[in-house]
Amino acid sequence: MTISSVLFWALLIAGLVVLVRYLGRRTHPEPKTPEQLLAERFARGEIGEEEYRRGLEALRRHEV
Prior knowledge:
Number of strands: 0
Strand content: under 5%
Helix content: over 70%
Oligomer: single chain
Distance between the termini: 68 Å
Largest sheet: none
Structural class: mainly alpha
């Protein structure tokens, strides 16, 4: 009786953990804006400050 009770609770907890992880993966993050992508490239050092400012200015010029 004790073994079946422990097994029941272990399966129940494991099932809840799997369910929470599965449901947590289904949410998609917000898509990043072009400004955020440009800022990330600048922060990683992929582009310089001048190129960052030009890109930011170009994006703001073409906003709808």
